[in-house]
Amino acid sequence: MKRYINPEKEEWTRILERPVINMNELTGKVQAILREIQAEGETAVRRYTQLFDGICLGKIAVSQEEIEEAARQVDADLREAIEKAGQNIRKFHEMQKPEVRQLETTPGVTCWQKPVPIEKVGLYIPGGSAPLFSTVLMLGIPAKIAGCSEIILCTPPDKKGKVDPAILFAAKATGITKLFKLGGVQAIGAMAYGAGVVPKVEKIFGPGNQYVMAAKQLVSIRDVAIDMPAGPSEVAVMADGSANPAFVASDLLSQAEHGPDSQVVLVTDTAELVDQVENELSRQLELLSRKNIAARALEHSVSIVFDNEQDMIGLINAYAPEHLIIAMKNYPEVAGKIVNAGSVFLGNYTPESAGDYASGTNHTLPTNGWARSFSGVNLDSFLKKITFQEISEEGIRNLGPVIRTMAAAEQLDAHEKAVSIRLKTLKKR
Amino acid sequence: MKRYINPEKEEWTRILERPVINMNELTGKVQAILREIQAEGETAVRRYTQLFDGICLGKIAVSQEEIEEAARQVDADLREAIEKAGQNIRKFHEMQKPEVRQLETTPGVTCWQKPVPIEKVGLYIPGGSAPLFSTVLMLGIPAKIAGCSEIILCTPPDKKGKVDPAILFAAKATGITKLFKLGGVQAIGAMAYGAGVVPKVEKIFGPGNQYVMAAKQLVSIRDVAIDMPAGPSEVAVMADGSANPAFVASDLLSQAEHGPDSQVVLVTDTAELVDQVENELSRQLELLSRKNIAARALEHSVSIVFDNEQDMIGLINAYAPEHLIIAMKNYPEVAGKIVNAGSVFLGNYTPESAGDYASGTNHTLPTNGWARSFSGVNLDSFLKKITFQEISEEGIRNLGPVIRTMAAAEQLDAHEKAVSIRLKTLKKR
Asked: Is B307 an interface residue toward A (CB < 8 Å)?
């Protein structure tokens, strides 16, 4: 870990610089594939599945039998864990249900907001070395609670045309029944434009590699909404003398094992803690199966020692980490001052992995500084709020003159006349 | 108006086709300007203000004296109207304040969401023929209620370097004090990257021409969030025999006068109403100062007659209009079935202009079909929701095994170990 002691505020941005993701090269390639999918639909999707995933698919849709069979292949332990985590995620996202509130802003003028589910949503679950079945829960459960009428899921097949059983089981446990064996740009294109059996959706959710990210970004310009911009995963730990160095190291490693570009930051007011954490990092790193990946991420990790709490908080808010662990004695107070973060973990017994899997909060979170303006995925992500207004005869009498004056001043005649014609009709009565 | 009688469902998409906005040509130009602004800051911003707005600015910031003077220039009538509209908008957006709800998902595992204002937001108010001071209220009031700590506003200067007094007065009434005389791509670039006196913001709001739209889209890829994608304004009116044809025509014209590319749609179950509305359109059109603009918009407007209510609702939900007026006897029932729309106006005495100015609802709404996945601007647009979790020793004992099983199955060792190291420590006690 690179170590900084009391860096000046002007240096913070440089110290915490994230890797620049240059997508310009990718963009052309990805755009070309998307155009073919838009023009040719399923034919193009199949062609690219053969090219990139090395499999000539029979049916793109996962069959009911495959889902049933997968459920039997998953260990009872894991089935139970997925169900328990699902319960917590369900409870937490159900709590987020917005109420419909109604208000008479002026006598006779009633306004309200009504949350309505986005009708069709598409969830993308990456394949690769580890099957991210936990993301199925994180995206599928709020989609179900929101009441989206069509929820589809795309995930890449292996070379035999199979999907990981845990992903299928998690989908089944979540109540998602429309699954497709599609990965990468093909999956994003199919969901954005529709392709044969794959319906077009209104919003696409989920993580992915840089090709998937570029494809999501491109389709979001004109065709379909997306959950949020993406970037490498991050954790920042704020720790004081009350923190347990072994725990802190274990949390930093949890982040580091995600990928060599993972961002790992330790901020403390206790210089000795940095040494202790570094010792623990060396010790614990050796025990990890993904130790090479984690070691590479640690190479560009940083620790920052301040002599005061205010700077610790200031730096974290400037950085806007995806995950923030506060292992400090007065964590409730510090937490109250955090304004930029995706998800926050409080105290010594709240590791990030709790939120990654099972506490109930969502693990699809804003990275790359987007926590300054974006929330993580939550129930709202699957809803839109439609406003309604109902104006009585009394209401338009009360409000009409205000509207007329403003419309006239904006030189919008017809806007003014839409009110005056109504007021005249009322006068005649 | 082009008229369709009972069109087949397969034809709906074609009938309601929106103009394709081809931004490819613009994009290159806009991108080049943005790059210069990012590299040179204020120098480039001033250069383009001279080039596009024809004014060599002294100070970019609007001075306190200019704001005070503007307030004196605005008629008392208009001042009062702006204040009354502001009160309604304030009440409606204050009602939207989310509560913090907390939940123990598992004994010892407590989770909550905390709404936190986006710190720095930028509002863009177009200039041009009519000063859109109403948009100052629609964006500024929720930003204030959310508690954004820095709210800046950019609007183009006229040839004398002045800003419209009504815009300045609306800003003053809203409590916005940082205003800049910048329009177009220069304004968006300055807010996205920061430029001299103009601070970088985290989210940009507001309407604009196609250059502004392209600039917002480009900066949103990497640098700053934006409110929503944009497109030409739209209204759909659903009307039955109980509708007043003169009112309906006045509402269609309100939309048509916005611009020649405005989308105007009438859906009814009463064929005679279409004739009556068309007669009224001809009559009322003659009285408008912007009649040429409105006439061009009406050229590509459509009316659709169905013999049943179900198809009327189906077509509207497929179209997803920005504004929807329901002038039908059973409007509460019909409104309950609307799932895709920006803002809905109920009954004969609720013209769109009420929501454009003063009912309290927001007029910054999703166009171009984005109402399928986006809400209009509302209090949420200025907030992000940070999740928090606090796990006690009991909590990690309860939840730990679930996390460990899932992390192991996803082959994320360090995630598993971050839990097991804590469980071991607890056992030793």
From this structure: no
